[in-house]
Amino acid sequence: MTGWLARLREAPVSAWIGILLILAYAAVAIFAPLLAPFPETAIVGPQYHPWAAPHLLGTDALGRDVLSRLVWGARNTVGIALVTTMLAFLIGTIMGFLAATVGGRVDAVSSRAVDVLMAIPSLIFALLILTITGTSILALILVIAVLDSTRVFRLSRAVAQGIIPLDYIEVARMRGESLFWIIRREILPNAAAPLIAEFGLRFCFVFLFIAALSFLGLGLQPPTADWGSMVRESAKLIAFANFASWQTATFGLAPLLPAGAVALLTVAVNLVVDWILTVASGLKE
After folding, report:
1. What is the mean pLDDT of the segment spanning 45-65?
2. Nearest alpha carbon to residue 148 among 206, 101, 192
3. Nearest by Cα to 161 from 91, 95, 103
4. 3-state SS, residue 59
5. pTM above 0.90, yes or no
6. How far apart are CA 48 and CA 253, in angstroms?
7. Per the omega criterion (within 30 degrees of 0), is the bond before 54 cis?
8. Side-chain-facing half-sphere of 145: CA atoms under 13 Å
9. How far apart are the C-alpha atoms of 24 and 66, rounded to whole Å?
10. Which residues contact 178 (CB under 8 A, 6 or more apart)?
11. Vertex 263: Cα angle to 26 and 17 (nearest 5)
């Protein structure tokens, strides 16, 4: 931990920009009830109110404050993506380490099961399962976590297979250490750097995947604020935008607000991931 703190002080400007943006998103998500001017689902004004006080970013088709919906969307979209990514990593890392360490039939069966899941396009598979199970938050988290854990499995298994033949693993086995001890004390610390970098990338993919499902109507359901569904709901306003007038020109900008929030967080996470990969590989900036 001390080593990473020392590296953090030497991080490039791009990494610091990404870190600060991520912290800003986290603050908005955590303190959404305090930062949002209005409640998440409250109808507080006329439909399609232009950008003017007290609705600084206007209102939507139901008269809900867009700025408040964006703030609440940070908690819902980012929070669910984070929980889903953590669950995917828990499943994928445990299965990957076990497959690499135990080997034999455990490795063969788990690898073939992962190959089957990866052979099916993730979006089509998720749409099929969510159509059957319904679009509850729990179903959304479980389906995406299982699908994304296959990618984590492949990485953790490959990394562990490169660590297992090393001498200190053999010494631990000769001492009679348990399988759990070897995984926790020997394999996991030495596989941490690529897994941390992969966590950032997986979070981006999960985040964008949830937004895509919401845009298609199978993600977070109304009246829950979600950036993907906000893009879908506000896209129709582009047809009513008249760029000769500032008030009606804002209608054309409405879909860009949630889309820009998605894009900015994705860029921020990738800036940090690039720095982590550079540090882990030993390359110089």
Report:
1. 80
2. 206
3. 103
4. strand
5. no
6. 12
7. yes
8. 19
9. 19
10. none
11. 55
Would you give the distance in Å from CA 259 to the centre of its chain? 15
Task: Say how far apart CA 110 and CA 95 lie, in whole Å.
Answer: 8
Phi, psi angles (nearest 5°) of residue 5: -65, -35
- Which pLDDT band holds residue 263 (cuts at 50, 70, 90)? confident
- pLDDT of 161: 87
CB-based contacts of 267, cutoff 8 Å, min separation 6: 18, 21
Grouping H, G, I as helix, E, B as strand and the rest as coil, residue 55 is: strand
DSSP H helices, 136-282, are: 137-163, 167-174, 179-182, 188-216, 227-235, 246-253, 256-281
Does 222 sit behind a cis peptide bond, omega within 30 degrees of 0 on the bond before it? no
DSSP bridge partners of 54: none
- Helix, strand, coil percentages in the chain from 3-state DSSP, rounded to 5: 75, 0, 20
Residue-level pLDDT at 153: 92
- Domains along the chain? 2-281 (1.10.3720.10)
Tell me, what DSSP letter sits at residue 115?
H
In tens, the pLDDT along 200-256 reads 888 888 888 888 888 777 777 778 888 888 887 777 766 665 554 545 556 667 778
The Cα-based distances of 38 to 5, 34, 43, 102 in angstroms read 39, 9, 9, 54
